[in-house]
């Protein structure tokens, strides 16, 4: 494909950036980067009641954190600036006047109350509510009467009834039926454009070649194609991405995990881990030597991404899979970097006061014990708490084990042995184990599991040989005694 590819992500700043939004943004970005095209960020903020500057700011921050950089946008400008719809109102009004002049749109003086009453009646009579064309053919006299009444008109677009067929890049031929759409508002009575209208004007003026967005926009696409045709604009290629559903195949909700990206950031997920997982949520890379490589770097995603392999069936969000993918990305970092990432989380949990507070090489070793057991950074403090002489949590299985007679006996023997040592190192720990085994006959799991449970509160996790050298004799004794 040529480098004329221009795509956009066009969020409305009315709340947090959601998983679905990020995937849409990511597919546009990957598509642009793969083809050497241009990726544009446009802020669709004409719903003034719901749009906030705060949301816009967070949105830009979240996208920057994800590393989904844009080539043109509200903060950096570009050849088609401004990129914030609220700053482009004059443009929408100019085109609306043109549509009126060409009899493709008209002023509508109906009030909200009148429209609502008609809507209710339609519903009551079992009809699909649709504008009845009341103001389509008003005489000059009638119009003047309304103006005198101080009614502020909206502008309605005259919808065609024909079916519109598009060649969707993901879904193939799609028939967007005509009978469902009545004449619809393009400029509200306060002078602000509606989404369907402003998006068309901007996609045209910004020379957008491909519109990739969620399938929930298919009904909008029908309206938008009508506007393209009325204004004699070339329609872009459309691709509608399938929905992302929860495990129960219902709408993605809080039950399935966080939905907003800000929460993944604060949980210490990695941008590359998240993007890797979200890329796979509806797209799959080509098999190599009979198998699909699921862990892909950003560069590999760009190289391999193609719309041909985007699925039209819904994608199921699976938090465990995301955790696994993120964990795999974490393994690529050296321990120093992971410790750096963990530091704010350790401070937040009160395990460390501030950076100079801590012996850095020791901290790196502490963090290392968690490396193979974590999926995201915020899990580190819990797994590390024992090294900071904090009680931490006691897992159910560990609790059960510690209740047994045999465990208590083993812990007693450990206590007696440890007490007489100067310090605890891997070597003398192993020496003590041998002695206990010889003297009491307790061995293997029966010998090691109770100490592990007492020290870490868990039967799983880092090896004892990794843990022991990082604990003081006093901490070991204190924790063992607690369970005797
Ligand atoms: N502002 C719209 C939204 O956030 C954009 C949809 C589109 O990509 O056209 O859903």
Verbal overview:
The protein has 484 residues and is mostly helical. It folds into 4 domains: 1-73 and 242-332, HUPs (Rossmann fold); 88-241, HUPs (Rossmann fold, 3-Layer(aba) Sandwich), CATH 3.40.50; 334-388, Helicase, Ruva Protein, domain 3, CATH 1.10.8; 396-483, Arc Repressor Mutant, subunit A (Orthogonal Bundle). The chain has helices at 19-35, 53-66, 89-101, 112-124, 140-148, 195-205, 218-230, 261-266, 271-280, 298-304, 319-330, 335-348, 360-368, 380-384, 396-403, 405-419, 426-440, 444-456, 464-467, 473-482, and strands spanning 6-9, 38-41, 105-108, 154-157, 164-168, 172-176, 184-187, 210-214, 237-241, 244-245, 315-316. The termini are far apart. The mean pLDDT is 94. Bound molecules: glutamic acid. The site of glutamic acid (GLU) has 8 residues, from helix 6.
């Amino acid at each position: 494909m040529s480098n004329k590819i221009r795509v956009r992500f066009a969020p409305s700043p009315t709340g947090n950036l959601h998983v679905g939004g990020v995937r849409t943004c990511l597919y546009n970005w990957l598509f642009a980067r793969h083809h050497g095209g241009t990726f544009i960020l446009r802020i669709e903020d004409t719903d003034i009641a719901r749009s906030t500057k705060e949301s816009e700011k967070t949105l830009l921050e979240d996208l920057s954190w994800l590393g989904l950089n844009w080539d043109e946008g509200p903060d950096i400008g570009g050849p088609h600036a401004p990129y914030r719809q609220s700053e482009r109102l004059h443009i929408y009004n100019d085109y609306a006047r043109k549509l009126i002049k060409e009899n493709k749109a008209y002023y509508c003086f109906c009030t909200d109350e009148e429209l609502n009453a008609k809507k209710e009646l339609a519903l009551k009579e079992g009809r699909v509510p649709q504008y009845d064309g009341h103001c389509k053919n008003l005489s000059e006299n009638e119009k003047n009467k309304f103006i005198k009444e101080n009614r502020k008109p909206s502008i309605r677009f005259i919808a065609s009834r024909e079916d519109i067929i598009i060649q969707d890049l993901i879904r193939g031929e799609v028939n967007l039926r005509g009978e469902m759409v009545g004449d619809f508002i393009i400029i509200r009575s306060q002078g602000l454009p509606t989404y369907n209208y402003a998006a068309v004007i901007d996609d045209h003026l910004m020379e957008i070649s491909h519109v990739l967005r969620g399938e929930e926009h298919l009904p909008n696409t029908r309206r938008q194609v009508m506007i393209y045709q009325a204004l004699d604009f070339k329609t872009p290629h459309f691709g509608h991405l399938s929905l992302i559903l929860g495990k129960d195949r219902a709408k993605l909700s809080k039950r399935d995990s966080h939905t907003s990206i800000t929460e993944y950031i604060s949980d210490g997920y990695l941008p590359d881990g998240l993007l890797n997982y979200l890329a796979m949520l509806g797209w799959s890379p080509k098999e190599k030597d009979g198998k699909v490589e699921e862990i892909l770097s950003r560069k590999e995603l760009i190289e391999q991404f193609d719309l041909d392999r985007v699925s039209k069936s819904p994608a199921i969000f699976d938090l465990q899979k995301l955790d696994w993918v993120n964990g795999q990305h974490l393994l690529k970092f050296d321990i120093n970097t992971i410790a750096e990432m963990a530091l704010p989380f350790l401070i937040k949990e009160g395990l460390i006061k501030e950076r100079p507070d801590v012996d850095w090489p020791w901290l790196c070793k502490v963090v290392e014990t968690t490396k193979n057991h974590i999926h995201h950074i915020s899990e580190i403090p819990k797994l590390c708490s024992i090294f900071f002489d904090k009680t931490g949590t006691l897992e159910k299985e560990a609790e059960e084990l510690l209740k047994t007679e045999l465990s208590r006996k083993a812990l007693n023997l450990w206590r007696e042995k440890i007490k007489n040592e100067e310090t605890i190192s891997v070597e003398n720990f192993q020496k003590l184990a041998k002695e206990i085994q010889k003297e009491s006959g307790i061995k293997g799991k029966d010998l090691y599991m109770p100490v592990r449970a007492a020290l870490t509160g868990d039967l799983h996790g880092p090896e004892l040989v990794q843990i022991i050298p990082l604990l003081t004799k006093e901490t070991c004794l204190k924790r063992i005694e607690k369970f005797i």
